[in-house]
Design a protein that fits this description.
This protein is mainly alpha-helical. The chain contains four helices and two strands. The protein has a domain of about 130 residues.
């Protein structure tokens, strides 16, 4: 929030962060995040064993940091705090203590606490002459524009059907990228190192393929391919519907590299 204005409100933040920070982000960038975080991450279908995974020992502590998934913090312009009245970040903590624990068993504990949270940032102070010019600019009734990419999330519940149509009404100046993910209570990955927000469901990954929804390289079933397309006004994106996993992966890579 800047003053009384809500700049961004991200629902299902943990799943959105998993999408942007663990899936579409390059591996080298994820490794850089690990240096600031807990030192490692588990992905690429690797199952971790809680008995041999480095963690925070009993009675010990660890200082970690992360950059929030927030559009206003991921743009290259300095923020003029003087004219923003105030800048407030609100974080909703987890629903359960074991949401952040690798696996709740004899090797792990859900008794943990967060101490001394803080925001670490760099401040740049301009000289008096330049500051006076900014002040005069604002007194003349002009604005200082800071364009940034806002993350907007929407969750829809659908029923089992061959054809599904979802209508979303949203006002935005410009749509840059669009990601669609799915979740199914029947296709849950049971690996100990996975939480519901780590999972992105596709019918090809189960259930019913003999893997219980846990196989990363299971058999191919043509009848489980999905066909989908997005329509904004009178324009269809893409012009021809996406009809396979390979086409979906191609479009995802275009989003990442663009």
């Amino acid at each position: 929030m800047a003053g009384n204005s809500v700049l961004e409100d991200i629902n299902d933040y943990n799943k959105v962060a998993e999408l942007f920070d663990n899936i579409v982000k390059p591996a080298q960038d994820r490794e850089n995040d690990d240096v600031e975080g807990f030192g490692y991450h588990h992905g690429d279908g690797v199952t971790a064993d809680p008995s041999d995974t480095n963690g925070v020992a009993q009675g010990k502590r660890k200082t970690v940091s992360f950059r929030p998934l927030c559009g206003i913090l991921r743009q290259p312009t300095y923020l003029c705090l003087k004219y923003m009245a105030s800048l407030t970040f609100e974080f909703e903590l987890i629903n359960s203590a074991d949401d952040v624990v690798l696996a709740a068993d004899t090797n792990t504990s859900t008794n943990w606490q967060i101490e001394n949270p803080m925001i670490q940032a760099d401040l740049c102070q301009i000289d008096n002459a330049l500051q006076n010019r900014f002040d005069q600019h604002m007194l003349d009734g002009k604005n200082i524009s800071i364009p940034y990419t806002q993350i907007i999330t929407s969750t829809q519940t659908t029923v089992a059907s061959k054809d599904i149509q979802i209508n979303i009404t949203r006002s935005a100046s410009r749509l840059q990228k669009l990601y669609m993910t799915m979740n199914s209570a029947n296709g849950v990955n049971t690996n100990l190192d996975r939480k519901p927000f780590n999972l992105f469901y596709h019918p090809m990954g189960g259930p019913g393929d003999g893997s219980g929804g846990t196989a990363a390289g299971g058999p191919y079933f043509s009848d489980r391919e999905l066909q989908f397309q997005v329509q904004i006004g009178a324009k269809s994106i893409p012009e021809r519907p996406i009809e396979s996993i390979s086409q979906a992966y191609y479009n995802q890579n275009n989003q990442i590299t663009s």
